[in-house]
Specification:
Blueprint lengths: L4 H4 L8 E13 L3 E7 L7 E6 L5 H5 L6 E10 L7 E12 L14 H6 L8 H23 L3 E2 L5 E2 L11 E2 L26 E3 L4 H11 L1 E9 L12 E10 L3 H22 L1 H10 L4 H10 L3 E4 H9 L17 H12 L3 E7 L15 E9 L3 E8 L4 H10 L4 H12 L5 E7 H9 L20
Parallel strand pairs: 3-5, 6-10, 12-13
Antiparallel strand pairs: 1-2, 1-4, 2-3, 4-5, 7-9, 8-9, 10-11, 11-16, 13-14, 14-15, 15-16
Bound molecules: 4-amino-1,4-dioxobutan-2-aminium adenosine-5'-monophosphate and magnesium ion.
Length: 460
Amino acid sequence: MTVRIIDLLRQKPEGQEVVVKGWVRTKRGNKNVAFIALNDGSTINNIQVVVDMAAADEALLKDVTTGSCLAVTGLLVESVGSGQPVEVQARNIEIYGKADATYPLQKKGHSMEFLREIAYLRPRTNTFGAVFRIRHAMAYAIHKFFNDKGFYYWHTPLITASDCEGAGAMFNVTTFDLNNVPKTEEGKVDYSQDFFARQTSLTVSGQLEGELGALSLGQIYTFGPTFRAENSNTPRHLAEFWMIEPEMAFYDLEDNMALAEEFIKYCVQYALDNCMDDLTFLNNMFDKELIERLRGVVECEFVRLDYTEGIRILSESGRKFEFPCTWGCDLQSEHERYLVEEYFKKPVILINYPKEIKSFYMKQNEDGKTVRAMDVLFPKIGEIIGGSEREADFDKLNTIIEERGMSKETLWWYLDTRRWGSAPHSGFGLGFERLLLFVTGMANIRDVIPFPRTPKNAEY
Ligand code: 4AD
Ligand code: MG
């Protein structure tokens, strides 16, 4: 039976026979002995395979090169060398797949840009193995957090006719032959002939349908891919990213903030408790303050700050920002980072934004100018969560939909939830890859998702 390396490294070495399979990271040695570092992806750590050259098949060993895949049968013994507790004394080696010198991941430091170009191979590196194991652990932690709190995992559609964020940054979904699109008599696209008999897109957010879940099951969360056709070439934007969107009946903005803070801290603590090998590797290789920063977030209390107060702090900072910032403007990442990294030195939840710069569904404040929005701002990342209390009043929601010229033909069902049995409710969206940027310390969002989708890039 094949044993995974993570389990093998925990076994007591008593000379027992083991079968271990994996990819060769390095091979070194001399005419008497060869040392093969084997990794199977189960852990950042390799198992050292020791080959006695006197008994070895030299021709076969020539094909044991970096990147080749092996099955090794041998004895598990205590390691005499430093750096590992146990090693395998090889009795038999079978080569599953050779890797000649053209294999791109030879042992040398590769740039992240180069590794992005070979995204189909990069999970075989230490760095990406660590990142993607952490990605899995965070996904599991998220489900566990909500399940333990009595939330239901609620599946919202990926194909939709409504534009939740009203930003118009949606990818069309159609089965039309684009070289021969049916037209109406007025010369417009005749969507009545399309697959869904209407114009449809990939969703930018599951929130609107999430609200339907909250207004029936009480507390739900979504966790799925979302799509944004914005031409944002930044280290923090993807065209396809995963979002977690909890939505809760009977939560006001205060409750919403408390949940967001507890949720993020839970995820970060989960990584500290369960991913220490990988975090230590990333900490040592890329970001010497990573683990300290993670601990800092778990231990501190997030600041709660009014947008208006935030603008005052920014304008009195004496700092020259690239984009000057006055009341009414949307904060740029430089402003968010100033507040978080320099002024407060901890995460900030900014609330009560001007209504003009926020989405139509947010609850309007009495002042007539602001809405009960909240953005959670994080060191290094900027906005990691966006959310709000929702407008529960039919008339107010109806008016704003009209004012913004949004389509009631596609939003009628959303309005109906305010017509019958409306309830105060709130929710937010956490960008999964933004969370991963924070937890792994990676600098570019393209490096925390296996196959990034960005403008002009959809390889694999
Ligand atoms: O602030 P956003 O646009 O909010 C919503 O979509 C709401 N419907 C969420 C809700 O209240 N249920 O997006 C939420 C989060 C952002 O804070 C950010 O972390 C992430 O999603 N995000 C992106 N992540 C990667 N690439 C992009 N292009 C992103 N756009 C937003
Ligand atoms: Mg936002």
